[in-house]
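User: Please predict the structure of the protein below. I'd like the answer in structure-token form so I can feed it into my own downstream comparison script.

Assistant: Understood. Taking the following sequence of 246 residues as input:
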Amino acid sequence: MGAATGEFLAFLDDDDLYLPGTLRPQLALLRTRTDLDAVVGQVQLAKMDATRYGNPYPSSLPDDVFPSFLRQYPQIGATMVRTAVRESVGLFDTTLVGGQDWDWQLRLATKHRVGFVAVPAVLFRQREVGDRDDLWWIRLRFMRRVFWKNARAAGWRRAGGLGVFLIILRHRGEFADYFMRSAIQAGQGQAARLALWRAARSSWLHVLFRLCHDPRLRQAMWGSLGGSNPPPEPMPKSNSHTRDPR
């Protein structure tokens, strides 16, 4: 970013993919809307083989994108900015092991107007659960650091008032969900035990709720404690509204 000499900057992680036609809609909006200093497009989730799943997001953004960026990580590959924003936003914070791009985009949204185009811009490729447990655990600490630093900088009212605590709980729940899925995949032993411990440290509320509703997690917990044959799950009552725990 520091070496760029062009009028605009765009970003792409090395494991993600641009979609055909991206950059042009962002560039067109920046050229016609001189009041905007940045623009974001939509993100499409995909497996590592580029198989797409889910709908592109976000479907829309308000004029003040900061609260939305705080609630849901914007994907840096869908972002284009005027290079001049470096002067006020600065460069990426290299002291962060995780969340550098989120931190930078929150700082951007605090100081500048950000536009939106409802056009899928990037394939955000997702790795398999269990591949990066240690990295996710490290990132939890930096997620909290980035969140609170930028919430304070923007002001509590802009960040959502008391609702800011629900937002951070949601983010912690996302980490807990990752580790619970990792525990289910591990099934038993030390790997499952470590994943469950990390899930509880991320958000014990989410773990308790999931334990009440997901027999697979209860089996993983039993297996992590050394039980070779988990106790049988009770049969659900005969009811057409019974939910599949999957």
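That's the full token string. The radius of gyration is 21 Å.
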